Amino acid sequence: MNINANTSQILSFNITGNTSYEVQFLVTGTVPTDTVINVFGTDSSGNVIPPQNVLQQELTQIAQLNP
């Protein structure tokens, strides 16, 4: 998936019944540090679940997953 400059993309996945999940992404481009990624878990009504918020500054880079 490509996301154009100055736009946003919201993806939703149904993980009902799972006790945990993992999100992986790869950012490429001329200035990938200009991309901001945040991950939010929500309940069945779409309300954010505070302990499941992961903001850009809290993300962990895994060197083995980066080209």
Please give a structural write-up.
The chain is an all-beta fold. 0% of the residues lie in helices and 16% in strands. It has strands spanning 39-42, 48-54. It has a two-stranded antiparallel ribbon with strand order 1-2. Strand 1 (39-42) and strand 2 form a beta hairpin. It is globular and about 40 Å long. The relative contact order is 0.16.
Kindly provide the radius of gyration, computed on alpha-carbon positions and rounded to a whole number of angstroms: 14 Å
Main pleated sheet: 2 strands, antiparallel
Helical element count? 0
* Strand element count: 2
**Helix and strand run:** EE
Principal-axes geometry comes out as globular
Mean pLDDT: 81
Gap between N and C termini, in Å? Answer: 17 Å
Q: Runs with pLDDT <50, length 5+?
A: none
Helix content: under 10%
Largest beta sheet: strand ordering = 1-2
Beta-strand content: 15-25%
Task: Looking at this protein, list some descriptive labels.
67 residues, mainly beta
Task: Give the secondary structure arrangement, pairings included.
Elements: E1 39-42, E2 48-54
Antiparallel strand pairs: 1-2
Question: Can you summarize this structure?
Answer:
The protein is mainly beta and 67 residues long. It has strands spanning 39-42, 48-54. The protein contains no helices and two strands.
